[in-house]
Amino acid sequence: MERLQKVIANAGVTSRRKAEELIATGRVSVNGQIVRELGTKVDQRAKIEVDGVPIDKKQKTMTFLFYKPRGVISAVSDDKHRKVITDYFADQDARLYPIGRLDYDTSGLILVTNDGQLANLMMHPKFKVDKTYLAKVEGIPNQAALTKLRQGVSIHSRKTASAKAWIENKNQAKNTALVGLTIHEGMNHQVKLMMRDVGYPVMKLKRDRVAFLDLTGLQPGEARRLSGEEVDRLYRLAQGKED
């Protein structure tokens, strides 16, 4: 017997947290009966439906590395009818969704999956993995600013963890710089807020790397499916079994 939300997530329908929302709002039935109680346990023989559609408990999981362009929402739908990440995966039968998010005006690496267990592990607060960003900023940061970024700055009365910070390149004529920043936290708008705190507002932002994964060979709007070995390695990282 397993909890209903876990079975739904493991089937690749959505993340466990979203599965809980589906249950609470009466969109899930078990053996023909609507179930709203979180924590309900079901066995492998149970017929589970989401919005009247039976889930495939043996659905094959898949995870993609996607190069999100700017101007795309990190979601499966948008009430303002803006372009969303899953628009790029319309040829896939699986119900895919992004793991985490990137701001609308931020480009770069994001994972898209139907593996609810992996998504749940990677979005858990305990999951701390290096994420590298490249930020085009106004001005050229001095050594004091870089040192402050490395030691941590205060955001919403909370000090960020130590980070790696460096200048990738600079344009003296335009008074701009490309700053590299590696962090392992996931606060909303963290890089933008960190750069603003040290006096160098972000003009453009890209997430260039997550853990051992990067954007090599991809253009904005392109994706590649992760290999089994890469997915296994993400599981080990998420479970704290690999540095």
What does it look like?
The protein is of the alpha+beta class. It is built from 6 helices and 17 strands. The strands form 4 sheets. Strands 7, 8, 9, 10, 13, 14, 15, 16 and 17 form a 9-stranded mixed β-sheet that branches. The protein has a 4-stranded antiparallel β-sheet with strand order 3-2-5-6. Strands 1-4 form a two-stranded antiparallel ribbon. Strand 2 and strand 3 form a beta hairpin. It is elongated, with a radius of gyration of 20 Å. The two termini are 33 Å apart. The mean pLDDT is 91. Its EC number is 5.4.99.-. Keywords: Isomerase, RNA-binding. This is Pseudouridine synthase. It is an enzyme of class 5 (isomerase).
Radius of gyration based on Cα positions: 20 Å
The level-1 CATH class of the largest domain: Alpha Beta
Overall pLDDT:
91
Termini gap: 33 Å
CATH superfamily caption of the largest domain: Pseudouridine synthase I, catalytic domain, N-terminal subdomain
The major β-sheet equals: 9 strands, mixed
Work out the helicity level. Answer: 10-25%
Strand content: 25-35%
Shape: elongated
The CATH topology name of the largest domain reads: Alpha-Beta Plaits
The secondary-structure class comes to alpha+beta
| Count of individual beta strands | 17
Q: Sketch the topology as an H/E string, one letter per element.
A: EHHEEEEEEEEHEHEEEEHEEEH
Q: How many helices in DSSP terms?
A: 6
Q: Point out poorly predicted stretches.
A: none
Query: Which architecture of the largest domain does the CATH hierarchy give at level 2?
Result: 2-Layer Sandwich
